[in-house]
Amino acid sequence: MRRSVFPLALCLSVPTLVAAPPRDGARPEVIGLDLTGMDRSVAPGHDFFAFTNGAWVKRTEIPADRGAFGVGEEVADLTDRRTAALIKAAAASKAPLGSDLRKIGDYYTSFMDEKAIEAKGLTPLKSTFKAIAAIQDRASLAHYLGTTLRADVDVLNATNYFTPNLFGLWVAQDLDDPTRYAPFLLQGGLGLPERSYYLDAAESMVTVRAQYLAHVTAMLKLAGIPDAPSHAKAVLELETRMAMVHASREESSNIEKGNNHWSRIDFQKKAPGLDWEAFFGAAELTQPEVFVVWQPAAFTGLSALAAEVSLDTWKDYLTYHALQNRARVLPKAVTDQSFSFYGKVLSGATKPSDRWKYGVVVTNQALGGGVGKAYVARYFPPSEKARAQKMVVNIVAAFRARIEHLDWMSPETKAKAIAKLATLKVGVGYPDRWQGYKDLKIVAGDAFGNAERAERFEYKRNLKKLGQPIDRTEWVMNPQTVNAVNLPVMNALNFPAAILQPPYFDPRRPMVMDFGAIGAVIGHEISHSFDDSGSLFDATGKLNNWWTPEDLKHFLASAEQLVKQFDAYQPLPGLHINGKLTLGENIADVAGLAAAYDAYRLSLGGKEAPLVQGLNGDQQFFISYAQSWREKVREPRLRQQLLTDGHTPAAWRPTTVRNLDAWYEAFPVTPGQTLYLAPGDRVRIW
Question: How many CB atoms lie within 10 A of CB 59?
């Protein structure tokens, strides 16, 4: 349910930060619904999140090292502790040299060896700084920029698309011809989260920019740059000019506007300024003749900057980013300075997370398939996989029934929607084939070099896809990730093992609660194939309008109704939820919850669920859903999410219930209450 702006991956918005620890290895304490976390003084129809989570919010403090805290963080913390134990066991096992287990252990222990990292100082960056200093003309600038191209669309954490490099690469099925892979190129280069951070005149943003300038200055001082303040100012000015040509979040979400096929010669004509042949040569992209350029105006503008901005400013810019990008494997002074801005200013945290937590993150990024294989063997039994697969089958069937019974959709469009649903490939727990790391060199004691080589390995792995048959079994998430994803071009879903655990999925409690939590997640990801972006793709994954004009008109009208509904919410003074930016996720929430509800009712075979904890089945379902979005967030993190993320903040996700008739009867909800919608105003898309 968390969608990257690059809409070829639509993901779950469960927060994946690490929370304050429970007992090591323990599951969350509460089995069933957390009645003590509810605030019964609040009417469900006025504020359903507060009704289901208000007491928990009042008594909960966000840990000092976090910008947010909630149920997702609790699950992620438990998962990370388990994963850390598996990684440490791999390190202690002294597995054979060259084996994946040995590489996992050596990668983690090298990252954790802070004394060795401190002793090396900035020496690991010596060759990078030398290469930057050697830039003497525009061709050598283009060549260096080409070496920084990476496959770094962040679909693993899926917060949004972000790359600090000038451009980013994503290799995926071609939208016009899904039988082949295409290289997608995307805008990048900013050190702040999004263009508005540079351009918004609000006082809060002016303050953030001043703090960012101080951060860049401090980093350049650490790099040994004389007169760092003036050089940092030039870097900020360059990034501001980049932001001015960047496409907005809303523009980047428009698939049809993003599907721009450029031949190699088009780059010199449409984006003059950068020596594209030098860039492509250094990026090892000499073979592809056609690229998909997602934000063409940004490429034109960024390329012009490569010709207009002085080489000295470009060198300062590249020096700063080289230092910032490797902060975690550099001495403490660099790491601390990085946290002082990205942790404190942008997230509101007051202290860094424990290093072992970062160690888990970076090891998962580098060798996630190998770690995931060990995690699944230990923590995801076949019985849980089978139970989850059964739930998927039930919710797919419920979604199909909803399509068949739509009174506004023509038989022609229904047939194509059902055909798309029939070809949906659902991966549960872990991939069919495990990724190997034979060609990834890991050297014990070389944390910086390991990070460089792992990033390069992933880049080359993506390049190798070009010209090869499409692999629809490929996963983009590790099994130990607390998240889920829909890949519209592949018409595939991934539900990692780590999200298939309590409190989302728990064999110890009534199934109705699972339908409200993980069932809504499953329904959400299925629904992404039919949201404002997913509905543009046919059953083969081709960008193809399969709607009749009248059906599309009705769909868009309902979508606009949902946009207005979410535009009205104001989480911070003067800052509303962007209903257009969050539309795809909100559609999937409405449709996914409705399908999960239908599946829960069908599973009872016409009977009513028994009372549990004094609540009937429908009440259990809706409360379970709302408690699965339990989260408390700091203001800087919330502001960043509202400006950059395609997801409604967690505390506003439970408002989805106001579009389902059954919710009104379950509590009950009456006219005049804040969340009440007249039947004709309730959004019913699927």
Answer: 9
Q: Three-state SS for 184?
A: strand
Distance (Å, rounded) from C-alpha 629 to C-alpha 606? 29
Report the alpha-carbon distance of residue 641 to residue 637 in Å, rounded.
6
Q: Determine what percent of the chain is predicted with pLDDT higher than 70.
A: 94
DSSP string, 355-413: HHHHHHHHHHHHHHHHHHHHHHHHH--HHHHHHHHHHHHHHHHHHHHHHHT-SSS-HHH
Residue indicated by tokens 């949004």 = 160
pLDDT (tens digit per residue) in 177-215: 999 999 999 999 999 999 999 999 999 999 999 999 999
Q: What is the pTM of this model?
A: 0.91
**Cα–Cα distance, 154 to 170 (Å, whole number):** 10
- Please check whether residue 682 is in contact with residue 658, taking contact to mean a CB–CB distance below 8 angstroms: yes
Q: What is the pLDDT of residues 518-572, one digit of tens each?
A: 999 999 999 999 888 888 999 988 999 899 999 999 999 999 999 999 999 999 9
Neighbour-count burial for 423-448, b at 16+ CB within 10 Å, e otherwise: ebebbbbbbeeebebeebebebebbb
Which two structure tokens, joined as six digits, stand for 620?
Answer: 């259990």
Between the CA of residue 476 and those of 55, 172, 385, 485, what are the distances in Å? 37, 11, 19, 8
DSSP code per residue over 540-559: TS-B---S-HHHHHHHHHHH
Tens-place pLDDT, residues 211-238 = 999 999 999 999 999 999 999 999 999 9
The predicted structure's pLDDT at residue 8? 54
Answer yes or no: are the C-beta atoms of 430 and 378 closer than 8 Å: no
Domains of the chain (ranges plus CATH)?
2-29+36-85+382-431+475-681 (3.40.390.10), 121-351 (1.10.1380.10)
Position 28, amino acid:
P
End-to-end CA distance of the chain: 17
Q: Residues 427-454: what's their mean pLDDT? A: 96
Average pLDDT over residues 438-459: 97
How many C-beta atoms surround the C-beta of residue 625 within 10 A? 29
* Mean pLDDT computed over 371-385: 97
